[in-house]
Write a structure and sequence with these properties.
305 residues, alpha/beta, 6-stranded mixed β-sheet, 4-stranded parallel β-sheet, 8 helices, 17% strand
Length: 305
């Protein structure tokens, strides 16, 4: 069985693009399953799949994050990767789907886990917002903050990979538009654009942004439940552009040099193991000559980096 790719909410599981892409596992939060049930659930997944890769975005409730780390600590296993990738909700769902696509390839679990950080750099994530008055995900100037109170104001915002914000002219009913210089910078490679509507009526994403970014396809999905909180407003249309072709994803990951984790022995790409969180370069020996506990086995979540 392929490595299991897990999320903590069903709305982060996008439809499979083909019959080869396996579904994601939805881990039950503390309010739906007690600790004993969570341990049994995770043990069964490890028994069936061998390894489990779970995305743990920083906007999850603290209780949910603590539950994941508690389960990993009690099971005392190095076969669970908890990845703290910080992307908006819809972009997180796209990354999850990419990992699902790679899970059926001939990559080892360690490579799949560490590939998440690599692939996140190739996702362009943003939103069309009706207000940026409470937005703290990207820098918001005083002028943009003041314009948020104007009736019908709309803003094009890019949160990843480079923060960007511009006010669009026009309002409502799909009438908002922007000149070429006001459009968020798009990807320089082939992507598909996925968008999800909140409480904002506009066709700007599909009618203007998609052609400007020269995407190869556009698809609409339901808005993730955490998106209004992440973007600090329910008046939004969230969007994300990502590489859809599994062969391109495969080549991208395969082109990176693989290393062996000095702590757990799994393969990795990049500078940190996805399973035990150990850095690629071994730390200097402690004064006592003993190894310290790896970060992933601590009871609290790892610091973000």
């Amino acid at each position: 069985m392929p490595t299991a790719i897990a999320v903590t909410s069903a709305d982060l599981v996008l439809p499979a693009p083909d019959r080869h892409t396996p579904p994601a596992v939805v881990l039950h939060p503390p309010g739906q399953l007690d600790l004993a049930g969570a341990l049994a659930e995770t043990s069964a997944l490890l028994e069936r799949h061998g390894h489990l890769v779970a995305l743990v975005p920083p906007w999850l409730p603290t209780a949910t994050v603590q539950r994941l780390h508690t389960v990993r600590a009690i099971l005392e296993t190095d076969r669970i990767a908890l990845l703290d990738i910080d992307l908006p909700p819809l972009a997180t769902a796209l990354l999850v789907r990419q990992l699902r696509q790679l899970s059926v390839c001939d990559f080892s679990p360690g490579v799949i886990a560490s590939a998440a950080r690599l692939l996140s750099h190739y996702i362009h994530a943003g939103a069309l917002l009706g207000s940026v008055a409470k937005l703290d995900r990207v820098p918001v100037g005083l002028k943009a903050h003041a314009r948020s109170w104007s009736p019908g104001a709309q803003f094009a915002v890019l949160a990843h990979p480079t923060p960007y914000l511009a006010k669009l002219t026009g309002s409502g009913g799909g009438g908002a538009h922007a000149g070429g210089s006001a459009l968020p910078p798009g990807p320089a490679y082939a992507t598909h654009l996925t968008f999800a509507r909140g409480q904002l009526s506009s066709d700007w994403v599909a009618a203007e942004l998609a052609p400007a970014w020269r995407v190869q396809g556009v698809m609409e999905n339901p808005l993730p439940a955490d998106s209004p909180l992440w973007w600090a407003t329910a008046k939004l249309v969230e969007f994300a552009a990502a590489i859809p072709d599994p062969s391109v994803l495969y080549q991208l990951v395969a082109s990176v040099r693989r290393e062996e984790c000095h702590w757990c022995g799994l393969e990795l790409i990049g500078d940190r193991c996805g399973f035990c969180a150990a850095p690629l370069a071994a730390p200097p020996p402690a004064g006592s000559g003993e190894r310290t506990t790896p970060p992933a086995f601590a009871g609290a979540p790892r610091p973000r980096h």
